[in-house]
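Troubleshooting log. The previous structure file for this entry was overwritten by mistake, so regenerating from the original sequence record. Sequence copied from the archived sheet and checked twice against the printout by T.R.
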Amino acid sequence: MGQPNADLTLDGIHNLTVAGDVNVMATASILTAHSTITIGGNLSGLGKIDLTGDGTLIVSGNMSITTLISGTGGNSLVIFNGSSQNICGSYQFNNLQAGPGASTATVNFLADETVNNALTGNGTVVCHNHTLNITGDMSVKNFIPDSGTVNLTGYINSQYQNINGYNFYNLSIDNNGTYLNGNVSILNNLNFISGNAILGSNNLTIQSPASITWKGSTTATPAFGYLVTGGTGHLTMTAAPALTVFPVGNSASEYNPVTITSSSGNVIFDVNVSDGVTDATGAAITSSAVNETWLIVPHTSATVAIYTQWTDGSKGDANQELFGFNRTLAQLNDRTANPSPWMPIGPAGSATGGDPWTLGSSSLSVTGSVPYSLSVGGPPAPLPVTLISFDAVYQGGVVNLAWKTVSEINNDRFEIERSANGKDWTKIGETPGHGNSQIENEYSATDNLGALVAEGPIYYRLKQVDYNGIFSYSEIRVVKISPVAGAIETYPNPVSDNLNVTVTIPNNSSSTIRVVNLNGVVVYNTVATGTGIRQMQIDMSAYPAGSYILQVINDGAAVSKMLSKN
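Regenerated output below.
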């Protein structure tokens, strides 16, 4: 049976098993409607295998036979169960399984392949530089793209396709929609021809310098061709100095892209948009707002221009504007915790465009790894307190804070907060408010830093609290403290092994340099003498992960700096 040269037809009752190689001659064919053909070696030859119906072909070696007929029924199955197999011909499979059961088969595509239904198995498929066209679900355990292309070409019966989490070099979506069942990364290009990618709780990453070819625009609402992020999943992509569109929407019928232009070079962002918007207590807002919440997370600190987009329903798309919303008095807001009050970004103004509408900020400073929620409201509600000035000035180890109001409504108090990084805040004091007032009121407070900080910046803000507990924040003020004698500079921070330290030592003196854990235990101690700037390296690799304090002590005075050990 090694080289059949005549037709062989299986009757659906009997199966065919060959332990070694099979070479089907040019004039021969093996036909099976319902039986199983098992080949323990290679399958080659100029003939054909016909699986019309629900026949099954199992191959343990390489496959290079000239013709494979899978039939139109959609139920035939080809299984590769060897350890490493090459698929040398270009075939159309109905169902393809790479590694059944506990098998760890590796299947190498050495030509373009088409799977008209599902690609499954516990093995690995390697695409190399070829094209895989797949009409059904893709759940094979491992997929290695190399420089190949996967085309998701959809179901005829209008079902969605499902794919597990893989890396793709090129991925083309041309279907009714694709559900992600795992995190997906694009190494070169994601091309939308038709349909959307529905993320659910999974993420899709466009790895720089990869790109998206999408069907939306900033002046029209597409019916398809974007990423649906209505769950917790997000699109991760690099925002460039040129305008970058993050093509996201909260459903298959609601497209709400974010455009970001970075003035800080290339910056990676996670972007998500979801339906609904909440107030400071977490309750749903039901009027005077756009009913969407955008979430952006920069991977590094940056200054960006950012714009949001929504629709009003006038062109047959979704109406995302709640009752009472006024586009001519629209206000972009942000917050970094939820629930918490929304903070206005710049003054209110008119949205631009015309279904879709756009509103944004031409300059927004964001801190790396901080989640920023964005919303659009309008008209803005009357402010309980009108703050006309807020200043912070450093002098001799003390920061003097001063602010003025011209109107106060139910103002219980101001709480003063300080931060070393602009995102983690500590209350350092409070000042009573004037309740209800329509005259100018002046306030002041001091922050005696002592030995807390060697050099800035240090951040301050006011938390204004009403009698009913509702609160809002002022703009942030930054105090920059220049290095002084004994000042400390460190990097990296957080540190894993070697900590580089630069210390300024006063004239002809000695300074004790030590590292203390939060229990007050000194874990490192040394003495530096001389004058001027001294550089040294401290090995932190043996210390447990956590927070430490680096201190420089000179003539009884100490300056300190917080350290984080990974």
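The chain has a mean pLDDT of 87. Archived copy saved in two places this time.
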